[in-house]
Design goal:
The protein is 46% helix and 10% strand. The protein is α+β, with helices and mostly antiparallel strands and 362 residues long. A five-stranded antiparallel sheet has the order 8-7-6-5-9, with no helix packed on it. Strands 1-4 form a two-stranded antiparallel ribbon. A two-stranded antiparallel sheet has the order 2-3. It binds fe (ii) ion (2 copies). The site of one fe (ii) ion has 5 residues, from helix 7.
């Protein structure tokens, strides 16, 4: 049995220990054989590491992985756009600056330059182009990098997008971005040996990982930052139904900025690229949220987020799981993951075909 990051999982691996939520509910039983859906489910529950059996699974490469794309894919179109090239350059530059600043705060207790770091991030999203959107560009930046720094920057950017979709004021949008940027700062205080320990964690080590919201709050107490930024670090793992940690707050007890960060945090984890495949198709992520997200996240924030994600893909060509190609033409408000797709002369309403789904954007 070994402990590995959920980012390193792939289909066929066997779960070696029951996976439990913070409030001790069974998420996945020992002996479960993983598939792509189950791996994404672990992300939805905010699980970062799991125990798996040692025996190496057979990696099966499906024929579709081997076929070369006939036309330029959606991914290629995003990656070849001048907007993306500029974004990538800024992203890499700002990541270096952010990393240095965060390390100095964690190691030497230096003053956190919130305004300076925030300015860099806001510069990245000020281009104002309608396509590709920031979330699209972020998806295409993703490699297998699961560092706290890339994750934090991504969450800051996603919070910025969500805050704008929520029509918050410019000052509030900036606040949401900062809250995302520093939400996991407490992770820098957890010994690296625990985070990367391959063997079983003892209860003390396990508790230490779950202390990162409190550690972050304490670090930020020594900094001149707004209360919302501290609260977002403390409360981003709290859940609307009271199932989160560390204080088991629920509903309005959770700072609204922490509720925004919670959605951005999980979205970033779920859309991460995997060892065995590229980033997950956004419609699969939306489906997961629809299946089990609404009781745990702020409903209004989550609905606004998902609706806007879907709207950005209107008129985008896609491929269904039965290999038909078409274009997303109409959003089903009551089932956001299942829009109407035009395939040739036919309109396929995915809401009426439970076995069909959007496999990928093309
Ligand atoms: Fe966290
Ligand atoms: Fe996080």
């Amino acid at each position: 049995m070994k402990r590995i990051s959920t980012l390193e999982l792939f289909p066929g691996m066997i779960i070696a220990e029951d996976v439990l939520s913070f409030d001790r509910h069974l998420i996945m039983a020992k002996g479960t054989e993983l598939n792509d859906n189950l791996i994404t489910r672990l992300d939805l529950h905010g699980i970062l590491t799991v125990y798996v059996e040692d025996s190496p699974p057979q990696i099966t490469v499906t024929p579709t992985d081997l076929t070369l794309p006939q036309t330029i894919s959606y991914k290629d179109r995003v990656q070849n756009s001048p907007e993306f090239k500029k974004f990538k350059e800024d992203y890499e530059h700002n990541l270096g600056t952010f990393k240095d600043a965060m390390n100095q705060v964690a190691e030497r207790n230096l003053e956190l330059d919130v305004d300076g770091l925030l300015e860099n991030i806001l510069g990245m999203v000020s281009i104002g182009s309608s396509w590709p959107g920031v979330l699209d560009m972020l998806q295409n930046m993703k490699d297998f990098d699961d560092s706290t720094f890339t994750h934090s920057m991504n969450v800051g950017l996603i919070c910025n997008v969500l805050a704008k979709w929520l029509k918050l004021t410019p000052a509030q949008v900036e606040m949401a971005t900062a809250c995302g940027l520093f939400h996991d700062i407490g992770k820098l205080k957890i010994p690296h040996a625990i985070i990367t320990k391959p063997g079983k964690l003892d209860p003390k080590e396990y508790a230490q990982i779950q202390r990162h919201p409190i550690l972050g709050y304490q670090m930020l107490m020594q900094q001149k930052v707004d209360d919302h930024i501290r609260n977002a670090a403390l409360m981003h793992h709290e859940r609307s139904d009271g199932s989160g940690y560390p204080m088991r707050l629920s509903g309005n007890q959770i700072d609204p900025y922490a509720r925004i960060v919670a959605i951005a945090d999980i979205y970033d984890a779920m859309t991460a690229a995997r060892v065995y495949r590229g980033p997950l198709c956004p419609f699969r992520v939306i489906e997961m949220f629809e299946q089990e997200g609404f009781q745990r996240y702020d409903v209004e924030f989550l609905l606004t987020f998902l609706e806007n994600v879907v709207n950005t893909y209107l008129q985008t060509p896609c491929k269904l799981n039965d290999n038909r190609e078409g274009t997303i033409v109409f959003v089903n408000k009551e089932k956001l993951s299942r829009p109407i797709v035009q395939c040739g002369a036919n309109y396929v309403n995915l809401k009426d075909f439970p076995d069909l789904h959007i496999q990928e954007l093309i």
